[in-house]
Amino acid sequence: MTTEKTLDFQKRKISYRVAGEGPVVVLLHGLPFDGNLWRSYLTAKGEINTQASHFKDSSWPGKFKFITPDLPGSGASEMIDDMSMEGMAEVIKNIIDMEIGSTEAIPIKADINSGMSFSSEVRVVGPSPNGGSWKRAALIGHSMGGYVSLAFAEKYPEYLKGLGLFHSTAYPDSEERKTIRKKAIESIKDRGAGQFLKTMIPNLFSPDSRHKIADSIEQLIEQTNNFSAEALVSYYEAMMRRPDRTSVLTNLKIPMLFIAGKYDNAAPLNDVLKLCHLPEISYFHTLSESGHMGMIEEGGKSNNILNDYLINLS
User: Fold this and answer.
1) pTM of the full predicted structure?
2) What would the pLDDT profile of 236-256 be if each residue is shown by its tens digit?
3) How many structural domains does the chain have?
4) In whole angstroms, how far apart are CA 233 and each of 60, 230, 240, 276?
5) Domain contains 238
6) Handedness of CA 165, 171, 204, 283 (dihedral sign)
Protein backbone atom coordinates (compact mmCIF):
# COMPACT_ATOMS: atom_id res chain seq x y z
CA MET A 1 0.00 0.00 0.00
CA THR A 2 1.00 3.62 -0.42
CA THR A 3 1.64 5.56 2.78
CA GLU A 4 1.51 9.35 2.91
CA LYS A 5 4.26 10.73 5.14
CA THR A 6 5.50 14.10 6.34
CA LEU A 7 9.01 15.25 7.19
CA ASP A 8 9.63 18.23 9.47
CA PHE A 9 12.56 19.97 7.77
CA GLN A 10 13.71 23.17 9.47
CA LYS A 11 10.15 23.68 10.76
CA ARG A 12 8.70 23.28 7.25
CA LYS A 13 6.41 20.46 6.16
CA ILE A 14 7.71 18.19 3.41
CA SER A 15 5.29 15.64 1.96
CA TYR A 16 6.27 12.32 0.41
CA ARG A 17 4.84 8.89 -0.32
CA VAL A 18 6.28 5.44 0.36
CA ALA A 19 5.09 2.33 -1.46
CA GLY A 20 6.30 -1.26 -1.65
CA GLU A 21 9.14 -3.15 0.01
CA GLY A 22 12.69 -3.89 -1.12
CA PRO A 23 15.61 -1.86 -2.49
CA VAL A 24 14.85 1.84 -2.28
CA VAL A 25 14.09 3.92 -5.39
CA VAL A 26 13.54 7.67 -5.02
CA LEU A 27 11.64 9.32 -7.90
CA LEU A 28 12.02 13.11 -8.14
CA HIS A 29 9.60 15.13 -10.24
CA GLY A 30 10.38 18.16 -12.35
CA LEU A 31 8.82 21.61 -12.65
CA PRO A 32 5.88 22.38 -12.39
CA PHE A 33 4.64 19.06 -11.02
CA ASP A 34 4.75 17.09 -7.76
CA GLY A 35 5.32 13.51 -6.67
CA ASN A 36 2.03 12.44 -8.23
CA LEU A 37 3.73 12.75 -11.63
CA TRP A 38 4.94 9.17 -11.05
CA ARG A 39 1.51 7.88 -10.06
CA SER A 40 0.93 6.08 -13.37
CA TYR A 41 3.95 3.88 -12.62
CA LEU A 42 2.53 2.50 -9.41
CA THR A 43 -0.57 0.53 -8.46
CA ALA A 44 -2.46 1.19 -5.26
CA LYS A 45 -0.18 -1.39 -3.62
CA GLY A 46 2.91 0.59 -4.52
CA GLU A 47 3.94 -1.82 -7.25
CA ILE A 48 4.84 -1.00 -10.83
CA ASN A 49 1.68 -1.15 -12.90
CA THR A 50 2.00 -4.48 -14.70
CA GLN A 51 -1.63 -4.69 -15.78
CA ALA A 52 -1.00 -2.72 -18.96
CA SER A 53 -0.29 -4.96 -21.93
CA HIS A 54 2.99 -3.19 -22.67
CA PHE A 55 4.65 -4.34 -19.45
CA LYS A 56 6.84 -7.38 -19.94
CA ASP A 57 8.31 -8.42 -16.56
CA SER A 58 5.87 -10.11 -14.17
CA SER A 59 8.60 -10.50 -11.55
CA TRP A 60 8.59 -6.75 -10.83
CA PRO A 61 5.84 -6.34 -8.18
CA GLY A 62 7.05 -6.14 -4.60
CA LYS A 63 10.70 -5.81 -5.57
CA PHE A 64 11.20 -2.18 -4.64
CA LYS A 65 10.37 0.46 -2.07
CA PHE A 66 9.41 3.63 -3.93
CA ILE A 67 9.72 7.08 -2.36
CA THR A 68 8.04 9.93 -4.24
CA PRO A 69 8.57 13.30 -2.54
CA ASP A 70 6.94 16.61 -3.31
CA LEU A 71 9.94 18.90 -3.68
CA PRO A 72 9.82 22.04 -1.50
CA GLY A 73 7.23 24.45 -2.90
CA SER A 74 5.42 21.73 -4.88
CA GLY A 75 2.35 19.69 -4.01
CA ALA A 76 1.83 19.54 -0.25
CA SER A 77 5.42 20.54 0.59
CA GLU A 78 6.19 23.99 1.92
CA MET A 79 8.96 26.17 0.57
CA ILE A 80 12.24 26.15 2.52
CA ASP A 81 14.72 28.95 3.15
CA ASP A 82 17.26 27.57 0.67
CA MET A 83 15.41 26.79 -2.56
CA SER A 84 18.60 26.02 -4.47
CA MET A 85 19.28 22.59 -5.95
CA GLU A 86 21.65 21.99 -3.05
CA GLY A 87 19.02 23.05 -0.52
CA MET A 88 16.44 20.69 -2.00
CA ALA A 89 19.03 17.90 -2.09
CA GLU A 90 19.34 18.26 1.69
CA VAL A 91 15.62 17.60 1.97
CA ILE A 92 16.01 14.38 -0.03
CA LYS A 93 18.93 13.33 2.15
CA ASN A 94 16.77 13.78 5.25
CA ILE A 95 13.96 11.71 3.72
CA ILE A 96 16.38 8.89 2.88
CA ASP A 97 17.83 9.04 6.39
CA MET A 98 14.32 8.67 7.79
CA GLU A 99 13.48 5.73 5.58
CA ILE A 100 16.65 3.68 5.21
CA GLY A 101 19.46 4.95 7.42
CA SER A 102 22.07 7.62 7.93
CA THR A 103 25.80 8.15 7.88
CA GLU A 104 28.14 9.97 10.19
CA ALA A 105 31.63 11.33 9.59
CA ILE A 106 34.47 10.23 11.88
CA PRO A 107 38.16 11.17 11.75
CA ILE A 108 40.63 8.48 10.66
CA LYS A 109 44.37 8.67 11.25
CA ALA A 110 46.64 7.32 8.53
CA ASP A 111 49.44 4.88 9.36
CA ILE A 112 52.33 6.34 7.37
CA ASN A 113 54.33 3.14 7.83
CA SER A 114 51.69 0.88 6.37
CA GLY A 115 52.18 1.96 2.76
CA MET A 116 48.49 2.78 2.54
CA SER A 117 46.91 6.21 2.36
CA PHE A 118 43.62 7.29 3.87
CA SER A 119 41.56 10.43 3.74
CA SER A 120 41.36 12.32 7.00
CA GLU A 121 37.62 11.80 7.17
CA VAL A 122 35.42 9.00 5.93
CA ARG A 123 31.72 8.34 6.04
CA VAL A 124 30.69 5.20 7.83
CA VAL A 125 27.37 3.48 7.97
CA GLY A 126 25.41 4.45 11.02
CA PRO A 127 22.23 3.03 12.52
CA SER A 128 18.95 3.80 10.86
CA PRO A 129 16.68 6.05 12.92
CA ASN A 130 13.91 3.47 12.48
CA GLY A 131 16.08 0.53 13.49
CA GLY A 132 16.71 -0.79 10.01
CA SER A 133 20.05 -1.56 8.40
CA TRP A 134 21.75 0.69 5.88
CA LYS A 135 20.80 0.32 2.23
CA ARG A 136 21.80 2.52 -0.67
CA ALA A 137 19.17 4.03 -2.94
CA ALA A 138 18.61 4.52 -6.65
CA LEU A 139 17.72 8.13 -7.45
CA ILE A 140 15.79 8.96 -10.63
CA GLY A 141 15.23 12.65 -11.41
CA HIS A 142 13.01 14.15 -14.07
CA SER A 143 14.05 17.57 -15.44
CA MET A 144 14.61 19.82 -12.40
CA GLY A 145 14.47 16.67 -10.28
CA GLY A 146 17.56 15.58 -12.20
CA TYR A 147 19.34 18.78 -11.19
CA VAL A 148 18.49 18.05 -7.55
CA SER A 149 19.68 14.46 -8.03
CA LEU A 150 23.05 15.65 -9.32
CA ALA A 151 23.45 18.07 -6.40
CA PHE A 152 22.69 15.15 -4.09
CA ALA A 153 25.14 12.84 -5.87
CA GLU A 154 27.89 15.44 -5.66
CA LYS A 155 27.62 15.72 -1.87
CA TYR A 156 26.42 12.24 -0.89
CA PRO A 157 27.72 9.72 -3.44
CA GLU A 158 27.93 7.02 -0.76
CA TYR A 159 24.13 7.03 -0.52
CA LEU A 160 23.64 5.92 -4.12
CA LYS A 161 23.66 2.62 -5.96
CA GLY A 162 22.24 4.14 -9.14
CA LEU A 163 21.42 7.54 -10.64
CA GLY A 164 19.05 8.32 -13.49
CA LEU A 165 18.54 11.52 -15.48
CA PHE A 166 15.10 11.48 -17.10
CA HIS A 167 14.94 14.39 -19.57
CA SER A 168 17.65 16.19 -17.62
CA THR A 169 21.24 17.39 -17.98
CA ALA A 170 24.40 18.05 -15.99
CA TYR A 171 25.23 21.14 -18.06
CA PRO A 172 24.63 24.60 -16.57
CA ASP A 173 22.27 27.04 -18.23
CA SER A 174 23.65 28.71 -21.34
CA GLU A 175 23.26 32.47 -21.64
CA GLU A 176 20.45 31.85 -24.11
CA ARG A 177 18.68 29.56 -21.64
CA LYS A 178 19.10 32.11 -18.84
CA THR A 179 17.46 34.75 -21.02
CA ILE A 180 14.51 32.42 -21.61
CA ARG A 181 14.17 31.77 -17.88
CA LYS A 182 14.29 35.50 -17.08
CA LYS A 183 11.44 36.08 -19.54
CA ALA A 184 9.52 33.25 -17.85
CA ILE A 185 9.97 34.92 -14.46
CA GLU A 186 8.66 38.21 -15.89
CA SER A 187 5.66 36.39 -17.33
CA ILE A 188 4.88 34.67 -14.01
CA LYS A 189 5.01 37.99 -12.17
CA ASP A 190 2.89 39.76 -14.80
CA ARG A 191 0.30 37.06 -15.56
CA GLY A 192 0.34 34.84 -12.49
CA ALA A 193 1.39 31.20 -12.22
CA GLY A 194 -1.85 29.72 -13.55
CA GLN A 195 -1.88 31.65 -16.82
CA PHE A 196 1.83 31.08 -17.33
CA LEU A 197 1.51 27.29 -16.88
CA LYS A 198 -1.38 27.08 -19.36
CA THR A 199 1.11 28.15 -22.01
CA MET A 200 4.20 26.47 -20.62
CA ILE A 201 2.97 22.90 -19.99
CA PRO A 202 1.82 22.03 -23.56
CA ASN A 203 5.24 23.09 -24.86
CA LEU A 204 6.84 20.31 -22.80
CA PHE A 205 5.28 17.75 -25.15
CA SER A 206 6.13 16.78 -28.71
CA PRO A 207 3.92 18.24 -31.48
CA ASP A 208 2.21 14.88 -32.02
CA SER A 209 1.61 14.35 -28.31
CA ARG A 210 -0.14 17.70 -28.02
CA HIS A 211 -2.82 16.31 -30.33
CA LYS A 212 -2.86 12.63 -29.32
CA ILE A 213 -3.06 13.15 -25.55
CA ALA A 214 -4.61 16.60 -25.38
CA ASP A 215 -6.98 15.50 -22.60
CA SER A 216 -4.11 14.28 -20.42
CA ILE A 217 -2.25 17.54 -20.95
CA GLU A 218 -5.35 19.49 -19.96
CA GLN A 219 -5.60 17.43 -16.76
CA LEU A 220 -1.99 18.28 -15.93
CA ILE A 221 -2.73 21.97 -16.40
CA GLU A 222 -5.75 21.72 -14.09
CA GLN A 223 -3.64 20.00 -11.43
CA THR A 224 -1.28 22.98 -11.36
CA ASN A 225 -4.01 25.62 -10.99
CA ASN A 226 -2.96 26.44 -7.44
CA PHE A 227 0.78 26.42 -8.02
CA SER A 228 2.57 29.16 -6.14
CA ALA A 229 4.07 31.94 -8.25
CA GLU A 230 6.69 32.42 -5.53
CA ALA A 231 7.78 28.79 -5.80
CA LEU A 232 7.91 28.91 -9.60
CA VAL A 233 10.10 32.00 -9.55
CA SER A 234 12.38 30.35 -6.97
CA TYR A 235 12.76 27.30 -9.20
CA TYR A 236 13.69 29.36 -12.24
CA GLU A 237 16.20 31.39 -10.27
CA ALA A 238 17.74 28.21 -8.83
CA MET A 239 18.04 26.63 -12.27
CA MET A 240 19.87 29.68 -13.59
CA ARG A 241 22.34 29.51 -10.70
CA ARG A 242 23.12 25.81 -10.84
CA PRO A 243 26.74 24.96 -11.73
CA ASP A 244 28.24 22.61 -14.30
CA ARG A 245 28.02 19.13 -12.78
CA THR A 246 29.50 17.06 -15.59
CA SER A 247 32.35 16.17 -13.22
CA VAL A 248 29.82 14.38 -11.02
CA LEU A 249 29.09 11.98 -13.87
CA THR A 250 32.79 11.37 -14.41
CA ASN A 251 33.49 10.74 -10.73
CA LEU A 252 30.54 8.49 -9.92
CA LYS A 253 31.35 4.78 -10.00
CA ILE A 254 27.77 3.56 -10.22
CA PRO A 255 25.59 2.64 -13.22
CA MET A 256 23.86 5.68 -14.68
CA LEU A 257 20.65 5.87 -16.68
CA PHE A 258 19.91 8.52 -19.31
CA ILE A 259 16.48 8.86 -20.92
CA ALA A 260 16.14 11.48 -23.67
CA GLY A 261 13.24 12.60 -25.83
CA LYS A 262 13.73 13.06 -29.56
CA TYR A 263 11.66 16.26 -29.49
CA ASP A 264 12.84 17.57 -26.12
CA ASN A 265 13.79 21.25 -26.30
CA ALA A 266 14.49 21.60 -22.57
CA ALA A 267 17.07 18.77 -22.39
CA PRO A 268 18.06 18.31 -26.04
CA LEU A 269 18.87 14.82 -27.27
CA ASN A 270 22.33 15.79 -28.54
CA ASP A 271 23.29 17.26 -25.16
CA VAL A 272 22.25 14.10 -23.34
CA LEU A 273 24.16 11.98 -25.87
CA LYS A 274 27.35 13.86 -24.99
CA LEU A 275 26.80 13.23 -21.28
CA CYS A 276 26.25 9.50 -21.51
CA HIS A 277 29.92 8.95 -22.41
CA LEU A 278 31.14 10.40 -19.10
CA PRO A 279 30.22 7.71 -16.53
CA GLU A 280 32.05 4.39 -16.27
CA ILE A 281 28.77 2.52 -16.72
CA SER A 282 26.02 4.17 -18.72
CA TYR A 283 22.62 3.14 -20.08
CA PHE A 284 21.16 5.45 -22.72
CA HIS A 285 17.65 5.34 -24.19
CA THR A 286 15.84 7.57 -26.68
CA LEU A 287 12.09 8.03 -26.62
CA SER A 288 11.41 8.58 -30.31
CA GLU A 289 7.93 10.09 -29.93
CA SER A 290 8.49 12.20 -26.83
CA GLY A 291 9.32 15.75 -25.90
CA HIS A 292 10.10 16.44 -22.24
CA MET A 293 7.40 14.22 -20.68
CA GLY A 294 8.23 10.67 -21.72
CA MET A 295 6.63 9.08 -18.65
CA ILE A 296 3.31 10.29 -20.10
CA GLU A 297 4.03 10.42 -23.84
CA GLU A 298 5.55 6.93 -23.97
CA GLY A 299 4.62 5.49 -20.61
CA GLY A 300 4.96 1.86 -21.64
CA LYS A 301 8.45 2.21 -23.04
CA SER A 302 9.51 4.34 -20.07
CA ASN A 303 8.22 1.71 -17.65
CA ASN A 304 10.24 -0.99 -19.34
CA ILE A 305 13.41 1.13 -19.39
CA LEU A 306 13.15 1.81 -15.66
CA ASN A 307 12.30 -1.82 -15.01
CA ASP A 308 15.39 -3.12 -16.79
CA TYR A 309 17.69 -0.56 -15.15
CA LEU A 310 16.46 -1.13 -11.61
CA ILE A 311 16.45 -4.91 -11.97
CA ASN A 312 20.09 -4.74 -13.07
CA LEU A 313 20.95 -2.67 -9.98
CA SER A 314 19.34 -5.05 -7.52
Assistant:
1) 0.86
2) 999 999 999 999 999 999 999
3) 1
4) 39, 5, 11, 30
5) no
6) negative
